[in-house]
Specification:
Layout: E1 4-7, E2 28-33, H1 36-40, H2 46-65, E3 69-73, H3 84-95, E4 99-103, H4 108-120, E5 124-128, H5 137-144, H6 153-164, E6 168-169, E7 172-173, H7 204-217, H8 233-254, H9 271-276, H10 281-293, H11 299-323, H12 342-345, H13 351-363, H14 368-382, H15 386-396, H16 402-413, H17 430-436, H18 457-468, H19 470-473, H20 480-488, H21 491-508
Parallel strand pairs: 1-2, 1-4, 2-3, 4-5
Antiparallel strand pairs: 6-7
Helix pairs in contact: 2-7, 6-11, 8-10, 8-11, 10-11, 11-16, 13-14, 14-18, 15-16, 18-21
């Protein structure tokens, strides 16, 4: 009999995890399990599965190296299980623990499962708060209920800056401004050199995982190889070191830019490492802040990076837990169209979408502007079904878990929550993509044309979106100028754009 059986999930690979806080190697056992239900509740990108399974196996080995007993149940092993509940039941029967200790999960459905375990098992079940975030659920509820009619990330972000002290000069923000987003939108110069990124060659553990994923999930979306993702704590720290030294100095200026054939630019690609637990948000923010104070990175880069972590990342997690479970079905704009086939093939004449979806297929990654203003913008303008879009974003990206994916899709991308936290829909015509990328110059469509068979579809889809959602959006103050422009538009031109949009959308099926 062991004293405590400690469950660690695949996105909880942190040695400082609350479930491991008071672990006694002499009396406790850590349970980790690869289970079919979690691997298959959506058909995850092959690289995502390989990343998570390899990181899990490496984390288990690191615990064993400390002298900690780990009961690890592999999906391709003799002790394979269909669900977490089955794996836990088998481990409880084997170890007969006095108590079962776990950290709350990142997803609503898993928390519901955990709460049921309190009745299922003849042992104390302790569910601890996740200490890897900077704001607790209670903190966010207090923020949300503080007499606010709307929830805005900017207000929450300032609260978090004051609480953490990041980039603060006494009570004032460093540099006198809270948010330097306006300084983060420079187009990428054609002659700028991009830094060479480190690649992490698959070791014995990762090679075994790659073979297993190809054998069991070979029909899933995405390309499995080449695979060069960091999957250990040491590799994660090396990735953070590389970013701070080589990419962070340019990240601020060019974080919204896109270049064909260059999917990563100056982005950190640390989100997957943060979301699975191999990096802690505090250490990432401290490293960036130290670079600023050392004169190694400008303020607009460091503020933009910290804003993504203590602002958006914490904010969307708060929204998720505040509004679930009903939030998953939000559809304020009554969007019903299914996903086009090119979301799976990347075969479309719209070059920007072909690039962003193709890079997603190849890398299980696309940076935030590709996700929001190319793929997401198209989903919004075309009226794609929010549940289908949520599932797509959840399965294709290796940093995607429901708590972070769902609010970004429902609230930020699709405005499906009716403006709970986005002050307006993030809708844009082709001119935005043209300004921030080199995609349009290589496209079969003409971004300067508004109507006709050669016009960029984003142009007529943009005005069609505004027209068909007039009753829902006309009172939005941030859209007042746009709707006045629509009203003044020549009726014949307006009708031509509506006709072009209808023809394009009908052809999607």
């Amino acid at each position: 009999m062991v004293h405590s059986l400690r469950l660690v999930l695949g996105d909880q690979l942190s040695r400082g995890l609350s479930a491991l806080a008071d672990l006694d190697p002499a009396d406790d056992v850590v349970l980790m399990a690869e289970v079919a239900e979690e691997a298959g509740y959506v058909p995850h990108h092959k690289k995502k599965l390989a990343f998570v399974f390899s990181a899990m196996r490496h984390f288990a080995e690191a615990l064993r190296a400390e002298g900690i007993a780990v009961d690890y149940r592999r999906l391709d092993g003799d002790q394979a299980h269909g669900s977490l509940g089955e794996a836990l039941a088998a481990a409880v029967a084997h170890h007969r623990p006095q108590r079962i200790v776990m950290t709350e999960p990142g997803e609503w459905r898993v928390l519901a499962m955990m709460r049921d375990w309190r009745e299922r098992f003849d042992a104390d079940v302790e569910i601890r708060a996740d200490n890897r975030f900077l704001a607790s659920h209670e903190d966010f509820r207090d923020f949300a209920e503080d007499g606010r009619k709307t929830l805005r990330m900017e207000h929450f972000y300032r609260l978090m800056r004051r609480r953490t002290g990041y980039l603060m000069h006494g009570e004032a923000p460093e540099g006198g401004r809270w948010n330097l987003d306006a300084d983060n939108r420079r187009p990428l110069p054609a002659d700028i050199a991009l830094p060479e990124r480190p690649a992490f060659a698959p070791d014995r553990i990762t090679r075994a995982v790659l073979a297993m994923v190809e054998a069991r999930f070979g029909d899933n979306f995405g390309r499995l190889t080449p695979f060069a993702h960091p999957v250990t704590r040491a590799d994660a720290l090396a990735s953070l070191d590389w970013f701070v030294a080589n990419a962070l100095p340019f990240f601020g200026d060019y974080q919204d830019a896109m270049r064909q054939g260059a999917p990563l630019l100056f982005h950190s690609q640390l989100s997957a490492l943060l979301n699975c637990g191999l990096l802690d948000p505090r250490e990432c923010c401290r490293r960036a802040e130290d670079a600023y104070h050392a004169g190694a990175a400008p303020l607009n880069a460091v503020e933009g990076f910290i804003r993504q972590i203590v602002g958006w990342r914490e904010f969307v997690r708060g929204i998720y837990w505040l509004k679930m479970p009903d939030y998953a079905q939000a559809n304020a704009l009554d969007a019903r169209r299914p996903l086009p086939d090119f979301f799976w093939t990347a075969e479309t004449e719209m070059n920007c979408l072909a690039q962003a979806i193709g890079e997603t297929r190849d890398n299980a990654y696309a940076h935030h502007i590709q996700r929001l203003m190319v793929i997401g913008n198209f989903c919004l303008l075309a009226g794609l079904d929010p549940v289908a879009v949520q599932q797509w974003y959840l399965l294709v990206y290796h940093d995607a878990y429901e708590w972070v994916e769902m609010p970004n899709v429902v609230g930020m991308i699709l405005y499906a929550d009716g403006g709970l936290f986005a002050s307006k829909p993030y809708a844009a015509s082709g001119s935005y993509i043209d300004r921030m990328s080199d995609y349009c110059g290589r496209c079969r469509y003409d971004v300067k044309r508004r109507t006709g068979p050669d016009a960029c579809p984003f142009n007529h889809l943009y005005w069609d979106f505004l027209a068909r959602n007039r009753d829902r959006l006309k009172d939005n103050r941030r859209l007042a100028v746009v709707y006045r422009t629509l009203e003044r538009m020549d009726p014949a031109r307006r009708e031509a754009m509506r006709r072009d949009a209808a023809r394009f959308l009908e052809a999607l099926a």
